[in-house]
Amino acid sequence: DECVEKPCQHGRCVNKDGGYKCTCSPGWTGQNCQQDIDECAMGNICKHGTCVNKDGGYKCTCSPGWTGQDCQLDINECTWNPCQHGRCVNKPGGYKCTCSPGWTGQNCQQDIDECRGNPCQHGTCKNNNGGYKCTCSPGWTGRNCQQDIDECTMKNICRHGACENNNGGYRLEFIVSCTKLLQSKVQRQLAFITWRWDFKMQWESNNPPNRFLCSKNINECTRNPCQHGPCVNKDGGYTCPCSPGWTGQNCQQDINECTRNPCQHGRCVNGKGFYICRCYHGWAGLNCQQDINECTRKPCRYGRYVNKDVGYKCTCLPGWTGQNCQQDINECTRNPSQHGSCVKKDGGYKCTCSPGWTGQNCNHDIDECTRNPCQHGRCVNKDGGYKCTCSPGWTGQHCQNDIDECTRNPCQHGHCENKDGGYKCTCSPGWIGRNCQQVIDNCARNPCQHGRCVTKHGGFHCTCSPGWTGQNCQQDIDECTRNPCQHGRCVNKDGGYKCTCSPGWTGLSCDQDINECTRNPCRLGRCWNKDGGYQCTCSPGWTGQNCQQDINECAKNPCQHGRCVNTVGGYKCTCSPGWTGQNCQQDIDECAGNPCQHGRCVNNDGGYKCTCSPGWTGRNCLQDIDKCSRNPCQHGSCVSKNGRYKCTCSPGWTGKNCQQDINECIRKPCQNG
Where is the EGF-like domain (predicted)? Predict the structure, then answer.
């Protein structure tokens, strides 16, 4: 039974007729399970990482953003809430932050200093977290102090005349058509006298009229001046109570409600007289102020759920993983069964142990000797089994079979009777001894020098031992004359001869080939017995007569793009950045991960290069070029977005860069002037 000597180094031994067979543990191969399988050479086993071979297995070192035994599971970084002021979008092997207005940086942690672009056209700018605030100069208003205050809309500023608004102030100009009583002979004369009065209430003319007949009020509401609201006539003017979302003297100006950031967790879209909040994931309500409790729909299949701002988090039960605890962990991939086979179960696993082993992971040896299996012998416990050392006269796996000693005829001159654990000889007349081998006669004086004495009719007869002859077996026979040593040299001895065998041969006559392979001379290879010797077929990476010499594979430079390290029985390549494969011969296509966020990726040997789209820069084209930094908008505010810019012109200006003055007189706004 070859299995007694435990030839299988990393596996289970099964005895066969005339030999044995090793069933290797996972990760091992070879006749005796002595050779480690290099799983890393089987291809791209680590999908998103580097593979390191281990004795009986392998280990994956995952690239950032990946996890799992084979680096096949993408890490959802968004569950950590990395985006401090923005919305997180998970990507394969990473994530991307879409920042709220006023914030920038990889994790939206950096406040944008909007004041550097001088947004306040007629005032001073103060930077705030996530925005800015303008303190306007007198006569100006609006988020960026770009809107002139129409003082003329203020109540009763020009009590009996027309007000002309100016940038940052106003001017009083009125034309009064009155009837002046002249001190002449003409009883009446209509006169039209014009004078001007500026906002300091000083007359330009030194001769104001004596009296006026301007008592009739004009009803301005008849021409419907209020565009988005009802008109209320006033003495000398009118006023417009604007509908929600509108402002201005005539309710003609839409209020941008988004400037006050009403959407707490979302993006604001301004409309004509209204606004809409487009909420981020996990939020609801008119102003995105209400957190959606995702836990009400029980998303975690096998785990406990906790509601979070902007989502929820699942704490999975043992044996489950995934964002919603929906993915069963295959525990069998880490080979928990040390001496048995692993069967995957939902949320766990079960080990079917090999004979002689027990425990959850088949790691506890069963002591079979506690149940006394050896009936007539001594029990010795072994890893995964036991061995019986039988008492004399017994045999069998459990020492349960009595040996019939009579089959080998121990009683030379008598009758043999088998007994449990032994035998008994009943001797024929004239014989004595345990095996009836002793004659009672003249042979008691031992006449035969080198042989056996047999009493014959009152005498004796010598049966000489091999190598002797003569009446009393006193003469030595020279056996070397017949050349008994087939593969060696013969030396005659008293009563025999001795063969000095040539190397590789043994036996009394040097006729038996020595099987040198039984002592395992080939340290790391397979042994083939030959007549008078043996031959070793070495495992890969070894050489020498007994495969004891490690081959330095690095001498032939197998690593095409990396550094070679010779190991016992093989070698290992440490690849340069951008290369992979057993011999670092395979270029890593970095473009497969789409590193160029706003551009085109070109793979190069050992790296990649991004050709950025217009308006973008940086190694991975993720840095937006701020087009507003050179102040292209001459009379308006600039907004940089997606590699471009857009000008919002101040009133009275137009053109791509707000450089063209609008001639308002074309549409004849002055009805009576």
Answer: 1-34, 36-72, 74-109, 111-146, 217-252, 254-289, 291-326, 328-363, 365-400, 402-437, 439-474, 476-511, 513-548, 550-585, 587-622, 624-659
